[in-house]
Amino acid sequence: EKGGYAHFMLKEIFDQPDCISDCMRGRINPNTCEVLLSAVDTHKEKLAEAKRFVIVGCGTSWHAGLIGKQLIEAFCRVPVEVEYASEFRYCNPVISSDDVVIAISQSGETADTLAAIELAKQRGAFIYGICNVVGSSIARATDTGSYIHVGPEIGVASTKAFTGQVVVLALLALALGKVKGTLPEKEYHDTVAALMEIPGKMKQVLSENAFIADLSKMFTYARNFIYLGRGYAYPVALEGALKLKEISYIHAEGYPAAEMKHGPIALIDAEMPVVVIATQSALYEKIVSNIQEIKARKGRVVAIVTQGDTVIRSLADYSIELPPTLECLNPLIAAIPLQLLAYHIAVCRGMNVDQPRNLAKSVTVE
Ligand code: F6R
């Protein structure tokens, strides 16, 4: 059932190109580069008239939500807030029928997310669910939604569900941006075309597995890690750090790269590995100077770079190359080396990767 892989987690990481294709199937017309998301089609007015979106979720699903915020704000020009479901439900949130709440949950059974939905419903919000498990409690509690269709996720650490969630959020932002007229036609079609290329690019990244496995051996005994990224890569940094914590039990923190100098830089020394998502982006030069600051303090840098990069390659201790894509879709491929890094470090440490201690696949109690 593990299809020849040592663990479900590794299988699920490698399944991502197919999962993403399944997730997009029937939702993108490859000939016209048009997105058709039935929930958006059916609830056009309600979604287009929303004054605000509030995304709720926990853990990895919350990280996907942070990327969703950037996508929806960029394409639909409407404000989006992202809340931990567990905080939202107890903070007497200002929410009304002008709001659309997007609830993200792989299992569809997370107690806090379900409670957040019930509260938002009582206050009149329209609820859009993004779930994996068909017919789950959260899927049933929502007004509409889109399944991510990535197949059962067995490994406790979420991998393919994360990329599936980001794909659905991208489709939602594209479809709604089109309905609202806020997304220029060319950007819409270019983004859809780039999205269709993601499964192939994921395969290229997966071909670096052996290199990442080798690299992981250098970090078996690390006690701490810092993960840095900016913009669309910031939530990926958070997700990379979460993966490492969950399965290798190494303490890891994700930070927006520019926040480093406001505190975490004090932690950097020769013992501190820093994973930096340093792919081509509007803020590339700033990331270069962050890496220089880390190297000046003898931190060990693992950089995730775009193919052909020479500047960061010469600064970093290790570089992992990604094929180029649009910055807004980069999380879909940048997440993969971080998943593999966490996986291989955990394996080197002899940990039970699929069933890490203290964690359950669905958190049905608060
Ligand atoms: C991370 C992980 C958890 C879940 C979180 C939400 O690898 O598995 O952080 O993402 O418990 O679960 P769902 O998405 O099922 O609501």
From TrEMBL:
It comes from the Bacteria. It catalyses: D-fructose 6-phosphate + L-glutamine = D-glucosamine 6-phosphate + L-glutamate. The active site is at 361 (for fru-6p isomerization activity). The keyword Magnesium does not apply. Coiled coil: none annotated. Its EC number is 2.6.1.16. It is found in: Cytoplasm. Residues 43-182, 215-356 form the SIS domain. It is an enzyme of class 2 (transferase). GO terms for molecular function: glutamine-fructose-6-phosphate transaminase (isomerizing) activity. Keywords: Aminotransferase, Cytoplasm, Glutamine amidotransferase, Repeat, Transferase. The keyword Transferase applies. Catalyzes the first step in hexosamine metabolism, converting fructose-6P into glucosamine-6P using glutamine as a nitrogen source. Homodimer. This is Glutamine--fructose-6-phosphate aminotransferase [isomerizing]. The lineage of its organism: Bacteria, Pseudomonadati, Bacteroidota, Bacteroidia, Bacteroidales.
